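Changelog note: in this version the structure field was regenerated for every chain. One regenerated record is shown below for reference.
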Amino acid sequence: MMQIRTSEQRGHANHGWLDSYHSFSFADYYDPNWMNYSVLRVINEDVIAPAMGFGMHSHDNMEIITYVLQGNLAHKDSLGNTEVIRQGHVQRMTAGTGIRHSEFNASDSEPIHLLQIWILPNQRGLPPSYEDKFFTDAQKLNQWCLLASENGANGSMLIHQDMRLYATQLSERNQIEYVLRDNRCVYLQVASGSIAINQKQLSAGDAAMFDATQTITLNAVNNAEILLFDLPKV
């Protein structure tokens, strides 16, 4: 069975400098039916105005992933990391016992478009840590590219949870499959473009959820970028 959550069904807040869509309850958006999906707690789609961003603020006991779709993100944190995260880069922070960081649009003229993702960790009180990796378009072209996993498999980032995060850039009229195993569930987020699953079309901002063993087949209606979360049933 497939459950669809459209882009328009998400929470939305436009602060002028920040235009944000919330897949799950976040800040002033609260829906008791959408607190999380398995261990996936937050997917925020953010567009940040030039030279604007978030000043130093703290997190704890959360795995935080930033996926840049367009633009450059300037990052600083209390561990001493100072980085510019560009399109193709993926950033992972383990907040653990506590981390402070800031993130700003590094451009004075162009907005930045990104996804911020929070994963509930499998252990509280971990030491804070930071990691970022660059994944080429070729690694994602019409195939699943593993971005993050519990054991850092295949050069992926290490995340403290029994989950895997994949990305693909699917060219128009191409097809890709994913086999969902027993006792697992999948959350699929369309980041750009349009795809069809089981003759249902999904466009940028839409999501689909699967919780039964099956082969999921994605067909690209046009060029599309998709994130797939393979998660434990909880």
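Spot check on this record: The first strand starts at residue 2 and ends at 5. The chain has a mean pLDDT of 97.
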